[in-house]
Amino acid sequence: MFQAPSASPFHLTNSHTIMFQLSSPLGRFRLISILEALSFIYLLYCSIYLKRMLGDDSAIRIPGMIHGGLFCVYCLFLFQAMEVASWSVKRAGLIFLTSLVPIVPFFIEPWLKREQDRLQGSTPA
């Protein structure tokens, strides 16, 4: 006889199955870091290709505002993560500098994941 599972299939309890744990400041920072990097790459596409090559002067207005908003949230979440993770100002400054180069946040993501695991007291599988 078929018995329905007791828990919802969308209820994830294992911390390694959740890509970004939004309940922690470091999880929120990891998510906004990736979103900010993607918006930066898209903004560069809009500014170089659409504005400069196709001559559309309004091409960067909306993407620029979205990226600016995400960057402000990035700075706020960096400050929160710095407090929770007890990072030095130098380390937080270096992490901030990674946001100025579009692809670098993708390279520091594994390190941020390890930091999040360290703070939660779990060890990677």
Alpha-carbon Rg, integer: 18 Å
Q: Could you say which structural class the secondary elements and strand pairing correspond to? A: mainly alpha
Number of strands: 0
**Approximate helicity band:** 55-70%
Number of helices: 4
Low-confidence stretches: 6-13
Describe the sheet with the most strands.
Answer: none
Succession of helices and strands: HHHH
- Span of the ends, CA to CA: 35 Å
Mean pLDDT, to the nearest integer, reads 84
Proportion of β residues? under 5%
**Rough shape?**
elongated
Please provide a written account of the structure.
The protein is elongated and about 50 Å long. Helix content is 65%, strand content 0%. The protein has helices at residues 25-53, 61-85, 89-98, 104-120. With 125 residues, it is mostly helical. The longest helix is centred in the first third of the chain and has 29 residues, at 25-53.
Summarize the structure.
65% of the residues lie in helices and 0% in strands.
Structural features:
4 helices; 125 residues; mainly alpha
List the helices and strands and how they pair.
Blueprint: H1 25-53, H2 61-85, H3 89-98, H4 104-120
Helix pairs in contact: 1-2, 1-4, 2-3
